[in-house]
Amino acid sequence: AEPPAADTEAVNLADLPRESGTLLSPEPLLRPQVVAVDEALVRGDKDLLRTAVINLLDNALKFGRSGAPPRAEIVVREDRVLLRVTTPGLRISASEGTRLFERFDRGPEARAEQPGHGLGLSLARHVARMHGGDVVLISPETEDTGFLLDLPAWRSA
Questions:
Q1: pTM of the model
Q2: In angstroms, rounded to a whole number, what is the distance separating the alpha carbons of residues 145 and 142?
Q3: How far is it, in rounded angstroms, from Cα 32 to Cα 25?
Q4: Rounded to whole angstroms, how far apart are CA atoms 62 and 58?
Q5: Measured between alpha carbons, how far is 45 from 8 in angstroms, rounded to an integer?
Q6: If you write DSSP's letter for every residue of the chain in order, what string do you get?
């Protein structure tokens, strides 16, 4: 469902990963590598969308295994804006992938290694769905983990 009209504005999704980098890591080499078009407009609540993007990037930063920074790639395809967040060196099995979006679910590795409550992915998905989109796991278990935030592109009335 669309958010209420009063809370919507045109938001350049391409700006959000760039703005979030310094919040996520004081270390420039660990900030997300952002590959994006200059303008990727969606309609929605900028603060909520920023929260979704930060949660995806924060997960990628926490769980990356290669020492390389997470990667955020934004493309515009027809009437959709797509943000793919890739976690270098992390592989997720199909069985783990089905539980990732459940609230408070944290795999054994996450419980052992990282602080958190298991809400980041479920919150990112909830925000995306509020905006007429979704967040899904898009990588097979043989590749670096990738999540896709898929939102309807903004169109002027």
A1: 0.82
A2: 9
A3: 9
A4: 6
A5: 5
A6: -PPPGGG-EEEETTHHHHHHHHHH-SSGGGSPEEEE-S--EEEE-HHHHHHHHHHHHHHHHHH-SSSPPPEEEEEEETTEEEEEEEETT----HHHHHHTTSTT---HHHHHH----S-HHHHHHHHHHHTT-EEEE---TTS-EEEEEEEEBP---
Instruction: Check if the beta carbon of residue 56 is closer than 8 Å to that of residue 71.
Output: no
Neighbouring residues of 10: CB distance < 8 A, sequence distance ≥ 6: 41, 42, 43, 154
Residue in the block written with tokens 């796991």: 137
The pLDDT of residue 6 is 47
Q: What is the mean pLDDT of each run of 10 residues along the chain (157 residues)?
A: 61 94 81 92 96 93 86 95 94 75 56 56 94 93 93 83
Give which of 126, 130, 121, 124 is closest to 44, Cα–Cα.
Answer: 130
Residue 76 tokens, joined: 């515009």
| Residue appearing with tokens 């990963």 | 17
State the residue for tokens 């670096």: 144
Token pair recorded at residue 79: 């009437």
CA distance 42 to 8: 9
